[in-house]
Amino acid sequence: MAKKRHNRTDGTTEDTRDDTEKRAMIQAIVIAILGWTGFSISDTSIKLLSDDYALSWILTINGALGFLIALIWLLTVYGTRGFHSTKWKLHILRGIMVTGVSFFVVHSVSRLPLADFYCFIFTTPILTAFFSIIFLKEELYFHRILAVLAGFVGVIILAGPQMSTFNIGVLAAVAGAICLSLSALVARKIGHQDPLPLYTLLPSLFIFLFNAPSALATGMPTPDMNALLFLLAAPMILLGQIAFCQAFARAPRASVLAPFHYIQLIWGILIGYFLFHEVPTVATWTGTIIIVTAGFFLLYKERRTERLTRTER
Questions:
Q1: CA angle centred on 206, ends 200 and 207, rounded to 5°
Q2: Closest C-alpha to 295, from 141, 132, 151, 184
Q3: DSSP secondary-structure letter at 141?
Q4: Does the reported pTM lie above 0.70?
């Protein structure tokens, strides 16, 4: 028996809508992976730069370069019409949140062991899914909760050591994760219609303005060959911010992208092994397998839930 196609009032069929949403979901996932890959490359550059430069200077220079690249891109490709957006308030709000992420992350890393920090900051997917249900009114399904919790379990296994004593670093890490989660939801509200450089213009400017005073207070750094890494870090941060915003704006549901945040851990394993000669442990491989499995499990369940929902209509 041929499958019945239900016509909608706008002239489309259920199959057409299914295909459109499926394409949007795949595009969002690919863009998200690209964005988080950009962040991973920038993190590696910052790790290398931190041996010679204060964190405040790294943030200040990256913010300045990111702002200049975005501004030149915007004016060259779009001209003054690139500034014509109806979402300026949301862009400003997201810029403030991204600045908050950078501030809290720096203060957390300086006070917590790195393993502890990642255990907290990678609660972001769980918070994103949670806030999606509260603010975006997305439906609460058991498989979504199970997928993000499984991913978090993988992070804990990867981190290995148990959480150390509670201090301000813990609060900073949690605050950073909350800011990152909320910025993803604001990105969905902004949408993906504005010029691409506009999505990183204000975040880069705000990061520069916020960190410049403390950077200047430490004195001017002496440039060396490692300074060339800024030319890699800044564009990768730019790529990450734009792709991050575009992915959450295009995704049919923000919670679908949540487990793919953990792709950074996979890059961390590869970069750590080939660049820093860090050999992955059994816990590392176990955690990674759990994380990847959680992501594919969520994709499978989301697609199945959609089909069942449309069959019942």
A1: 85
A2: 151
A3: -
A4: yes
